Amino acid sequence: MAKPDYYESLGLSRNASEQDIKKAFRRLAMKYHPDRNPDNAEALAKFKEAKEAHDVLTDPRKRSAYDQFGHAGVSNQGGFGGPGGPDFGNGSFQDIFGDVFGDIFGGRAGGGRRSYRGADLRYDLSLSLEEAVAGKDVKIRIPTTVECHHCGGTGAKPGTRPKDCPTCHGTGQVRMQQGFFSIQQTCPTCRGTGKIIEEHCPHCRGVGRLREEKTLAVKVPPGVDTGDRIRLAGEGEAGEHGGPAGDLYVQVRVEEHPIFKREESHLFCEVPISFVTAALGGELEVPTLNGKVMLKIPPGTQTGKMFRMRSKGVRPVRGGPTGDLICRVLVETPVNLTERQKELLREFEDSVSAGGKHHSPHSSSWLDGVKSFFERMGL
């Protein structure tokens, strides 16, 4: 009886990768392994067939010969099994699936200490509006952890080195047997580091890192706003066991300004003007972040009127046109008047009232609307 094709035995195409072959074999072994199918000759035959296909196709030399000459190319290179029944070798159920669970629980033990990336840090930086718009170079001091320069980060006393853990032999993992399954777990002796420190460094007490403060120069680009972050790569906490350092994120917060309010690239401000200026018109100085400019107030300006001053706002940090400065005028009502001033205002009011709609179009229109409303309501 002719042997089945190895690729067909595993349910794969001839261009399958080595990883595909291993996965297919694990799937079939889970189903047909003799440990799970005692006294089942059919399951044993299927397992032997899958195992033989796996052993040939995962060996580059044998696979090449098989692809060129078929079974004849590998017939003298050692097949599966032999006298006395199946030879499982390293293919017992526990060993076959040990690396499956090794993938789930952190990967197969490979020797050496595990390294860990250092933690990222955050620094809150407060800036005035002027500083945020113009940009600024600032220096900050941050508390952080750095690699112990006495032991070089090993945690061992200077002049000594950590030794391989006697429990896991430097792998950082131990294998636990649970029924059919062999599960890798973190070594309880070295806690996954793979090393044992017999004499701790007196400076870092075996941690391999020290707490320090360091000064950093931060270049704040023009146009930043509250919520923007500046990343300083590698300026976070030192990694463990030679791992890379984390990053430092400088979080920007722009303080409130006594005159301006920022909304994205635009600036807003309120400009109080006198009753006389609003009525007769005039010019007044308005501050901007780049100096003073003159704002022309036309006669008859009402409170709440908005004036736009082009390109007097903020240039965004991510590019784009400079925003505008928008001024909202507020007509200020005079207070603490003298008797003479009150008398003049009453005379002025009488004069304006005589002109009706000509002098107060909005007021007259509103009064006409109120009168019409009362009439409809029968009041």
For the structure shown, list the relevant keywords.
379 residues, alpha+beta, Helix Hairpins, Chaperone, DNAj Protein, Chain A, elongated, HSP40/DNAj peptide-binding domain
Folded structure, characterized:
The chain is of the alpha+beta class and 379 residues long. Helix content is 28%, strand content 25%. The chain contains 9 helices and 15 strands. The protein has helices at 6-10, 18-32, 41-57, 60-69, 93-104, 129-134, 275-280, 339-355, 361-377, and strands at residues 121-127, 136-147, 163-164, 173-178, 181-186, 195-196, 209-220, 229-232, 248-254, 261-263, 266-274, 282-288, 291-297, 306-309, 325-332. The strands form 6 sheets. It has a 4-stranded mixed sheet with strand order 10-11-15-14. Helix 2 runs antiparallel to helix 3. The longest helix has 17 residues, at 41-57. It is elongated, with a radius of gyration of 41 Å. 22% of the residues are buried. Mean pLDDT is 80; it is low at 77-112.
Summarize the structure.
This protein has 379 residues and is an alpha+beta fold. The chain has nine helices and 15 strands.
Helices and strands, with pairings:
Blueprint: H1 6-10, H2 18-32, H3 41-57, H4 60-69, H5 93-104, E1 121-127, H6 129-134, E2 136-147, E3 163-164, E4 173-178, E5 181-186, E6 195-196, E7 209-220, E8 229-232, E9 248-254, E10 261-263, E11 266-274, H7 275-280, E12 282-288, E13 291-297, E14 306-309, E15 325-332, H8 339-355, H9 361-377
Parallel strand pairs: 1-9, 11-15
Antiparallel strand pairs: 2-7, 3-6, 4-5, 8-9, 10-11, 12-13, 14-15
